[in-house]
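Limitations

Structures in this collection are predictions, not experimental determinations, and the ligand pose is part of the prediction. Treat each record accordingly. The example that follows, with guanosine-5'-triphosphate as the small molecule, is included so readers can see exactly what is and is not provided: the inputs are given verbatim, and the output is the predicted complex.
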Amino acid sequence: MMQRRYRSILDLKIKESAKALAISDSELACKLTAMGVLPGTMVELVRHSPFGSAYYVKVDGIRFALRAEEAASILLEV
Amino acid sequence: MSEKPVKPLKIALIGNPNSGKSTVFNQLTGLRQKTGNFPGVTVDLKEGNIRLSNGEEAVIIDFPGTYSVYPTSSDEKLVAAVLANPADAFFPDVIVYVADVTNLEKHLLLLTQLLDLGMPVILALNMSDTADTMGIKVNVSKISDEFDVPVVLVSGRTGSNINKLTAEIEKLLKNPVTWKKRPIYRLNETEKQVAETVCLNLDVDNNYRALQLAHHHKWLPFLKDNERAVLATIVQTKDFQLLRSQVDETLDRYDRFTPIVQDTIQKPPLFPNTPTDRIDAILTNKWLGPIIFFAVMMLLFQAIFDWSEYPMTWIEDLFSGLNDVILTTFPTNWFTELLTDGVLAGLAGIMVFVPQIAILFLLVTILEEVGYMARVVFMFDKFMRRFGMNGRSVVALIGGSACAVPAIMSSRTIGNWKERLITILVTPFISCSARIPVYLVLIGLAVPKVKVFWFLSAQTLVFGAMYLLGVVAALASGWVMKRWFRKKETSFLAIELPVYRMPYWKNVWLTLWEKVSAFVLGAGKIILIVSIALWALSRFGPGTAIETARVEASIKADSLHLDSVHTKDYISQRELEASWAGQMGKFIEPAIRPLGYDWKIGIALLTSFAAREVFTGTLAVLYNMGSSESEINDRSDNAAKATLRDKLRREKFRDTGGPVYSLATALSLLVFYALAMQCMSTLAVVRRETGSWKWPTIQFFFMSGLAYLCAWVVYVLFS
Ligand SMILES: Nc1nc2c(ncn2[C@@H]2O[C@H](COP(=O)(O)OP(=O)(O)OP(=O)(O)O)[C@@H](O)[C@H]2O)c(=O)[nH]1
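Predicted complex:
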């Protein structure tokens, strides 16, 4: 990894948003970019799921449910 | 290759999930649709017909929702595999690409991929009605120019411009055009080398399709072994990094079409707090969400029982009326018997389920249409993963309470093979509507009609417990299988949560119609065949066994001084014992005696293995044919009129003389029917979805073994 520090959705507070910079895992990147989660877009954490471990996020006005690993793979600007 | 048979023209509907593809499909085809089987293909896709202006018929195929030609679920794999193989039975002549115009910047990736594959495409910009209310302005002719494709702005809901779409389809079918602005994505150096080598070696004429073969060489089902080996070598020698190249290509495509979308579509700024946000604040709330979900499920099952009661009685009355008409108008012979005891009994057995199945499908379809199911997937993903499944499995399990067959097919959206397999294997544990009549008869027999609490009867409680048993069995088996199957593979949740919409009733009715008719025609066929076979097996016996039994029985009846009704009953009882069915029942009696069952239940069990709905029908047939000895000893005049339930209650074991339907036996039968795999249609679907007989065989023995064991434990505990 480079010197630069990243955050992920796991670090966001509810209603907080941040700009996505990249997706770290290439298999997940393939899936997420196809769905429209792209580097450069704003990602907002809306809420956590009832049993934990899933995240309700909004990307460019579109709503997604992501698992912890998926949410963690999206690198956000600090 | 010049003598090809004339094939119907094929039009494919392709688009992202929630783009409204199926709605457009319904607009184009109406009732002229079915879940079809193309010869030689192992998957079902919905297909419909349209008539072109020259009178020719064309087939429209509704493909599963797909984001990209780089698949992450078996649904998406299907689309990628068809597009990679021009020889595929589903390979379309024209594609209608459906995109949600209110989110066009996210809906064009797959379009640009289809264009690069050289497919003739029409872009249908759907949801024009919503675009209008949102104040979105679309420059249709500019989009058409930029991508060099015909574009039609349509609404699946209002039907606006659907005939324009049909006209464009015809135009494109008649004169395939050569496109100017292709390819949209320019391959990089490695990709170009890979594609060109593939073209040379495998006789492919499109570079992008050649690249697809390289990307998907590991799993594409139509590749021959030597082709697969060649592709693997090319990928290796060119050092082609598959995933890396897929991601780069995807991003590059977005870079190309995003400016076009910004140029051609004007959107008012987004509101931060839409109705969907406000609804989700409650429905997916950490605490309220699951509570509301369970309340919805309770209401669902309540509705099934409340609403189906009357139509079910009507159907039963209708069939018993028909039965009487046939008996009085036709002469008494074996053909009339075949009609009433075989065909009519079978038909009645199918039709009484229709109300319950219809109500359940209706409610589940509404939940799906509104957009609630995606939220359920979100809420229960973690929970289901403990049991080796995926949030998406909940949709299959809920569907399983109507019928396992469509439920198992809905598991195709699960990307991870292990999670999907577990979902397929455990879904039949969920009590489907075919078990309801079996439960009703047995519970009525075994459980007294007393109130436990002021509103709940003991019978209702046991009924609820049966459903719970199914859910527990499904989850527990999932938990075991999770440890048992070792295979590791990436698993995804990543799902889009669509905006909430009012249900569109045309969609709901068409889905309902499709599911119910699939049930009646699919499962119905088997039930009908079984009940006819059963009638034959119980009507005929080896050699002269039946005649001998009849003669002996009438002598015995004479010596007992029975009246005519009882003589007849006694004789038919003896005949049944002597028949093939009786022999079979007696043959397996030792195996099922530990569970508390006699040979007549044995026959019912055997026939139930084709379809469990047959159980009540079988018992009705058996007990009509043979009234029991205890009844004869009663000498009550009403005995002949006794209902099935009363007849069962009086049944005695031949050796011990104890009642056959004690509490213990009834409970053990209940448990057996809740857990055993007794549905040929389900096994057939599992075979199709898993690609071999291995899994249905395992499933059959696993479920039935578990059923035997649990039924035995219950019998021992209660007797
Ligand atoms: N307002 C509006 N809603 C539409 C239109 N077309 C479809 N919908 C709604 O959008 C939702 C999704 O539609 P479907 O036809 O099920 O979408 P699909 O693309 O087939 O979805 P998948 O089955 O997931 O591939 C449903 O609630 C439809 O009623 C339209 O033109 N206008």
